[in-house]
Design brief:
The protein has five helices and no strands. By secondary structure, it is an all-alpha fold. InterPro entries: PDCD5-like, PDCD5-like_sf.
């Protein structure tokens, strides 16, 4: 059975972290290996996104990444998960990406919503009972 390339990268990164924690010998070498593993992981993520998104959608996601990198990373991870679970049928267009963005924005708006309720007292100056 073929191993998932992203899973292999995660395992390699975790193994490098464990080795760095267990022995501090060769710190520069470990740092170089970690940087290489992170670079490979980033390249695999970009190649997966290139397979998932068409050119317009990819351009929109890149422009979002310039303004809000955390949000773009969250959307990228969500798209990769959707592709792995078979929820995407072919390449996603820019319109499809806009739909996903609207759902994410809606979820984030509900999450960050603050409601203020004011108590009314018997001697409220705004009451109409003068």
């Amino acid at each position: 059975m073929a191993e998932d390339p992203e899973l292999a990268a995660i395992r390699a990164r975790r193994m490098a972290e464990m080795q760095a924690q267990s022995g501090g010998v060769g710190g520069a070498d470990q740092m170089k290996k970690q940087q290489e593993a992170m670079q490979r992981e980033k390249e695999m993520k970009n190649s997966m996104l290139a397979q998932i998104l068409d050119q317009g959608a990819r351009a929109r996601l890149n422009s979002i990444a310039l303004v809000k990198p955390e949000k773009a990373a969250m959307i990228e991870n969500m798209l990769i998960q959707m592709a792995r679970s078979g929820q995407l049928g072919g390449k996603m267009t820019e319109e499809g990406l806009v739909g996903v963005l609207e759902k994410v924005n809606q979820q984030m708006a509900n999450k960050n919503k603050v409601t203020i309720t004011r108590r009314r007292y018997a001697m409220d100056s705004d009451s109409d009972d003068d």
